[in-house]
Amino acid sequence: MTHLMNTYNRLPIAFTHGKGARLFDEHGNEYLDALAGIAVNGLGHAHPRLVAALTDQIGRLIHTSNVYRVREQEALADRICALSGMQEVFFANSGAEANEAALKLVRFLGHQRGIEAQTIVMERAWHGRTLATLAATGSAKARQGFEPFPTGFICVPYNDIGAVTRAIDADSRVLAVWVEVLQGEGGIYVADVDYVKALRRLCDERRLLLMIDEVQSGIGRTGKWFAHQWAGIKPDVMTLAKGLGSGVPIGACVAAGPAAGVFGPGNHGTTFGGGPLAMRAGIETLDIIESEGLMANAVAQGERIVNGLKRGLQGVGGIVQIRGKGLMIGIELDRPCSHLVRQALAAGLLINVTHDSVLRLLPPLILSAEDADLIVHRLAPLIIAFLRPHSASGLGATAKAA
Ligand code: PLP
User: Fold this and answer.
1) pTM more than 0.70
2) What average pLDDT does this structure show over 133-138?
3) Is the omega angle on the peptide bond into residue 276 within 30 degrees of 0, that is, cis?
4) Ligand 1 centroid to 177 CA: how many Å?
């Protein structure tokens, strides 16, 4: 028993250190990390350049306050705006906090325009665990028991432009459309490029804000800095977190066009957000991703894993779909499969399951081709054995079955 609140069903393992795509537990066992702290450790563990930069920063300055100028904050905001083509950034400490800033921005703009702004959100969306972000989140399980929620959200089916149009037509107070272009927690669903483009057009026509939650899909994970860049569009509001700090807590709400310049002094704030340590982590993370070509690597290794799994699992009944983009990969089975997480752990592989039946792989962007193959080699036999409890497991068995 510990004195921790019982908010997680934790696996019986604790890690002492990591190196690259490997983690080591208290007993010296080695694991291949195909989860990267749920899309956080894009650079893997203990990346030498990140360690050096953070060590230097800790030795100089960890925290001052947002009542002063923070040069590292200005530098990271410049960098994010250059990469996204957007205008201004508010830094927070997590994805949910970045999203809260985005939601407050919409409401504040609504009041300036004389309406109580409504935001269209998507089924299966995941935006965080604060009350407002939970209100916008599609998961009934996560929401249950936390009513009453803040109002102002209209939920529509994902990837359905007609549903968004109808919701806008039905309520003149709609001011924003909020979407993950690749749903992570919801089960690794990739929106069609045409849908994302149509959302942009619709928001332009109706003077609405297009808000994109890139907390999980951003920072190179899909092979572009931000997943919406695959559709060649720009949002008015974008939120970031996870991979941006490589493990140092961080969140960012980025604004452009009609969403820029909405807040003035005193409208929003944070004690810790934008502190020098997190900012340095962000700057170094972006530098490393760029100079080491990690986005191209994400595409290459993502394809390698997906192709390897498709080959290894060909003809196996019970696989609904293998999908994703870059190193954000889901393997949907026709039944709940959280059991496989423990089996993978026993096989030296760290993965997780989302939406009950979707195995999720979010390996670090530094993944080598050998480790991409190793993920397939360790995972495919487990899936086969899980789906066919009485058949022999192993890639050989799969090939025969196929
Ligand atoms: N938005 C998305 C798309 C996420 O995937 C998550 C977390 O999984 C969040 C927001 C919430 O981020 P955090 O857990 O840092 O509050």
Assistant:
1) yes
2) 96
3) no
4) 18
